[in-house]
Amino acid sequence: MDADRPWLPRLALTPGEPAGIGPELAVALAATDLAADLIVIGDKDLLLLAAQSRGIALTLEADDGQWRSQRAPATLRYVHVPARAAVSPGHLDARNAAYVIDTLTRAADGCLEGEFDAVVTAPVHKGIINDAGTPFTGHTEFFAARAKCDVAMLLVAPLFNETTPSREARQSLPLARSRERARGEGPASPALRVALATTHLPLAQVPAAITAPALVRILRIVYNDLRHRFGIADPRIAVLSLNPHAGEGGHLGREEIETITPALNALRAEGMRLDGPLSADTAFVPAQRARYDAYLAMYHDQGLPVLKALGFGDAVNVTLGLPFVRTSVDHGTALDLAGSGHADPSSLIAAARMAIELAAR
Question: Residue 166 — pLDDT band, cuts 50, 70, 90?
Fold first, then answer.
């Protein structure tokens, strides 16, 4: 532990959709030796059932709000939020949509009040929440509304090579390496970072949502958090085009000429290092990736398929711009695996480790 802070970081952990794999992932995370005080905000009975499915002898302790200096493996503290209806793994129930919102609200408010150092979220099912009558486009938008601030969605995937340890070995690496990176000591692992100009929108609505003011706002958030959260002193960001081949000089669309380039020029005048608009079909080739600290994609499925193809299961979703740290997994609720005891916790483990690193700054 750091000498100037002899207690563990307090991570609020939301288990997501109760019928999905989130509760199981939460107890699997607790079974690791992660150097953090894990406080699950959810139904404690669901956690015990999830632990049984994985064969984990879980110890649950009610959270007393106190910082601690150590945590025994397979130990979780909890803030009990009861499910609204009985849960059957793999089977959605709209009555529990309110339960999911309750857990997110409690976690967000706790972070805003300084009760937790960060929040780590397991996947939710957006469809069932909307079916229950609650408009919900995603965690990112929910936390932005709760904190009353502008945010950006960023996904981070480590870039591995033939010398990289196996996933199991990576999960067991000592957290000291994370602390060294958080303090700026030692080399950071190469990573692909992709931010989004628009998030969960139908594709037909994307062009209208891409405006110069919106791009300026998003890029300022990304640039600021790359510097202050990730410790990159002078970030270089690749900005993708909306249209194929960056619009071909206006023949394939004029958004690059009329919207994207003016926004980039305004920010370049402020000193930001921005390249683009770049054609997305070649922007991610290895020689290009080596040049950039982050990418800004114009829409969800422009940048994220590349990132997930390279790092699925190890990627982390980070909400930039919040007054607290929020990280999440890179996958969904996996209803077909719920209750099986076989869900892979790799992404949640990576999200928790990144939350510790970012909160340390």
Answer: very low
Domains of the chain: which residue ranges? 1-151+321-361, 154-310
pLDDT of residue 245: 96
pLDDT reported for residue 175: 36
Whether residue 338 contacts residue 90, with contact meaning beta carbons closer than 8 Å, is answered with: yes
What token pair was written down for 23? Answer: 């509760």
* pLDDT tens by residue, 7-16: 899 999 999 9
d(CA 160, CA 311): 8
Average pLDDT, the chain: 90
Decide if 1-151+321-361 and 154-310 have a common fold: yes
CATH homologous superfamily of 1-151+321-361 equals Isopropylmalate Dehydrogenase (3.40.718.10)
Angle at 156 between CA 110 and CA 240, to 5 degrees: 120
Tally helices (H) and strands (E) across the chain: 15, 12
Q: How far apart are the C-alpha atoms of 239 and 39, rounded to whole Å?
A: 38
**Residue 355: how many CB atoms within 10 A of its CB?**
28
At the top level of CATH, the class of 154-310 is: alpha beta
Of 282, 120, 121, 298, give the one whose Cα is nearest residue 195: 298
